[in-house]
Design brief:
361 residues; membrane; P-loop_NTPase; Rossmann fold; OB fold (Dihydrolipoamide Acetyltransferase, E2P); ATP hydrolysis activity; five-stranded antiparallel beta sheet; 38% strand; ABC-type transporter activity; Molybdenum_import_ModC; six-stranded mixed beta sheet; alpha+beta
Length: 361
């Protein structure tokens, strides 16, 4: 499965000019408000006709303004999930799910199980929480038998508890759903948790496009991702759960101990390590309360206009980021090629930054 997008469209005071290609998996369009994310996804869906452009999904041309091709929305076979669920208020959850059902009963049962909707089927939308309603909206889109799922900031209208409620279901959808996804967000945590491919938009243009793990670990892109939200992704695997409440993970460069991760031994995970939570040492530290010490090699340093420096550390074939002061970097004499040790407190990694998903590419 592949997606190819080439769009040009103008609004008063804003011009969208984007070109990117994405493989199968979860492609996230990321950028701040007004960067053009929703315009792109609406053009892909057919809800907006751009001034010029071409959209190809799995070698099928959905839009080609030069060739005067524009496949009608119902025939594009794209499932669309909006910020608000847009469920039919007079229908039960079951009836909402089956409204556009194009697969067999087995397909319905699988979606109900995947999204945990079994105990909601006889309720009406008015009796659902925001997170529950979004799960139903996602289920309805899946049951339309789409070749691709389009999700336009599906968590934007939810408060923190509802987001925490729905994120595990999105994890399952991304790892088990079997349908490629184009996902719009301005939240770095959602990128880290869900994306396999990342398209970074800024002022209507593609700043960078590529594997999510590679882009998130690029120190040059930290200002565009948000300094406080910047962090790299590591793959890990659950090794054991210990009596003191810590879970032991096998990660690149060594073992990690995190507060109780509710996954089975052997499960693969992706873990976001915030750059601001990493301390660096030129020698292996001793006598610290921190349990996690990973050895790596400095691969890059990026000095911005302020007092901070972002250090990229190669660890077991993947990368970590550390955000430290320029004064510390100079005092330590940090330079590419040096061996360095990353120190991370166990409690620094939040549960929201641990995802049940396929290993990163």
């Amino acid at each position: 499965m592949s997606l190819s997008v080439d769009l040009n469209h103008s609004f008063p005071g804003f011009t969208l000019d984007v070109t990117f290609e994405a493989p199968s998996g979860v492609t996230v369009l990321f950028g701040h408000s007004g960067s053009g994310k929703s315009t792109v996804i609406k053009a892909v869906a057919g809800l907006l006709k751009p001034n010029a452009g071409k959209v190809v999904v799995n070698d099928r041309v959905l839009l080609d303004t030069h060739g005067r091709i524009s496949v009608p929305v119902p025939r594009r076979r794209l499932g669309y999930v909006f910020q608000d669920g847009r469920l039919f208020p007079h229908l039960t959850v079951r009836a909402n799910l089956t409204y556009a059902h194009r697969s067999d009963t087995k397909g319905l049962d699988r979606v109900v199980d995947l999204l945990g909707l079994g105990n909601l089927l006889e309720r009406r939308p008015g009796a659902l929480s925001g997170g529950e309603a979004q799960r139903v909206a996602i289920g309805r889109a899946l049951l339309s038998d789409p070749v691709m799922l389009l999700m336009d900031e599906p968590l934007a209208a939810l408060d923190a508890p509802r987001k925490a409620e729905i994120l595990p279901f999105l994890d399952r959808l991304c790892s088990e759903g079997g349908v490629p996804i184009l996902y719009v967000t301005h939240a770095v945590a959602e990128v880290a948790r869900l994306a396999s491919h990342l398209v970074l938009l800024e002022n209507g243009q593609v700043l960078r496009s590529g594997p999510a793990a590679k882009l998130m670990a690029d120190p040059v892109l930290v200002p565009h991702m948000g300094v406080r939200d910047a962090g790299a992704l590591l793959t890990a695997r659950v090794v054991a759960h210990h009596p003191d409440g810590l879970t032991e993970l096998e990660a690149p460069g060594g073992r990690l101990f995190l507060p109780g991760v509710h996954r089975a031994a052997g499960d693969p995970l992706r873990v976001r390590i915030l750059a601001q939570d990493v301390i660096l040492s030129r020698t292996r530290p001793e006598g610290l309360s921190a349990l996690n010490i990973l050895e790596g090699t400095i691969s890059a340093l990026h000095r911005g206009g302020g007092p901070g420096v972002v250090v990229q550390l190669a660890v077991g074939g993947e990368h970590l980021l550390a955000r430290i002061t320029r004064r510390s970097a100079e005092a330590m004499g940090l330079a590419p090629g040096q061996t360095c040790f990353a120190v991370l407190k166990s409690v620094a990694v939040a549960q929201v930054d641990i995802a049940e998903a396929a290993p990163l590419r």
